[in-house]
Structure formats: C-alpha cells, structure tokens
Amino acid sequence: MNMEIKELVDKGEMLPLMEEFYTIQGEGFYKGTAAYFIRIGGCDVGCHWCDVKESWNADLHPPTETSKIVENAKKNSDTIVVTGGEPLTWDMTILTSKLKESGLKTHIETSGAYKLTGIWDWICLSPKKMKLPTDEVCKNADELKIIVYNKDDLRFAEEQAAKVNEDCILYLQPEWSKRDKVVPLIVDYVMQNPKWKVSLQTHKYLNIP
User: Fold this and answer.
1) Where along this sequence does the record place binding of substrate (predicted)?
2) Is 138 annotated in some ligand binding site?
3) Which structural domains are found in the chain, ordered by start?
4) 62 in a known ligand binding site
5) What does the pLDDT look like over 22-62, one tens digit per residue?
6) 3-state DSSP call for residue 149?
7) Taking the model in full, what pTM does it have?
8) Is 100 annotated as a binding residue?
9) Do residues 83 and 98 touch, judged by C-beta distance below 8 A?
10) Which of 98, 143, 166, 202 shows the smallest number of beta carbons within 10 Å?
11) Is 40 annotated as a binding residue?
12) Which runs of consecutive H residues, i.e. helices, occur in the chain?
C-alpha cells in the first residue's frame, strides 16, 4: 500500500473492503431482518474459533473508496451492518456519516477492543478474552453477545455484563462447532439466570451467508 492510499485509509476515506452482501441478519436482537452487510478487513484480536479468519489480514483486501461502499449500500437496504474483521480498527466516522446522510440505519458488530468511532443506531458488542473492550464501547453497547465455547465463557459473560449499561440486552451464543456440547449448558444457564437470552446463528441453520 503506497503512502497516499495509506493516508486515505487512516482517515477512513478508503477502507479495506473484504465483501459486501445483502442477506438476513442471523444473530442477536435483529435476527430474521433483512440487512446489507459491509465486512471490513483487518483484525488482530485472533479468536481461534473465528469463522472468517480470512478477514484478519487487511492487506489482502483492497482499499475501497468509502463513497463507493455507501453507494452500493444505498441500492440494497435501509439497514447497514458493519462487521469484520474488527471494524473499529479503522476510523468509522466518514463511512457512518455518509450512510446517515443517505437516511440509512447504521449497525456495528465489534469486539470493542478499539476506540469507538462513527455514528451508530445499534452497537452489538461481542467481547473477547484476548483483547478486552474499552469502557466507552461497553457504556454505549445496545446488545452484549458472548460466544460460548466452554464453561469458562459463562464466567467471562458475567464479568462483561457488569461493564455494560443497564439497558443493554444480554445474549449467550453457542460457538457453532461446539453447539451440541454447549447448547444444553447455555439453556440451563439462561433458565437459572433469566437476564440472559439465547442467540443462535440462525443464518447457518437457514444455509445463507
């Protein structure tokens, strides 16, 4: 990446776009609703069970003009989900400002490990043990989604729930490859602790992106 392009990426005028697609939101509060997904490359959080590891290396994904990303989004849906990778690796101010100028709703899925930038209608915080979320993201999160891979993740879930605001919706979601083992664990836990809800990756059951 030459210096001129790097400066544009650092400002958020260009972003390393991995993919963009129109589909049904599969997880959390908005599951079952149509949305346009913008997947931004780049992530150093490094979850071993991540199902989009190809997103980690931002250099593999071409810097794309933010205005072009917005133009594509406008053609497809009024709800835009920015995901990754870890989108907060980059400055989201320009992208979300342009999306909002076009009358679109802006949602983000983030680990919260980096500074919160951008204008968001909905923040889905999915924190990871390897790189904990910032206080700012915790205070502004609309939903907290903890991926449950093993029993210790329930302890981690309670630690993170103590950091978010009182209106934040709490979800426990089974890690897909371990779902047969952890679903009974989650169901039992939610029944004993009804402040939590179960989130499933319904798009995988529907066999859609």
Assistant:
1) 24-26, 39, 83, 209
2) no
3) 3-206 (3.20.20.70)
4) no
5) 999 999 999 999 999 999 999 988 887 787 878 889 889 99
6) coil
7) 0.94
8) no
9) no
10) 166
11) no
12) 3-11, 66-74, 93-101, 135-140, 152-161, 179-192, 202-206
